[in-house]
Write a structure and sequence with these properties.
With about 55 residues, this protein is mainly α. Helix content is about 50%, strand content about 0%.
Length: about 55
């Protein structure tokens, strides 16, 4: 049987151990990626874009 050593058990600093423990529990394969920011349209630009899309 393969034995998995936990880094959170090895770390001596409680803050580092807590950080590593959270990472071990998450087990997510994808990193957190923020959603792309949408452009802010001002001064009637939204209406112009809408008119161009409808045309």
């Amino acid at each position: 049987m393969k034995r998995k050593n936990s880094l959170s058990k090895i770390a001596r600093d409680p803050i580092v151990a807590a950080f590593l423990g959270r990472g071990e529990r998450d087990q997510g394969t994808q990193p957190a990626i923020p959603a792309p920011r949408r452009p802010v349209l001002t001064d009637g630009a939204a209406e112009k874009v809408k008119e161009q899309a409808d045309a």
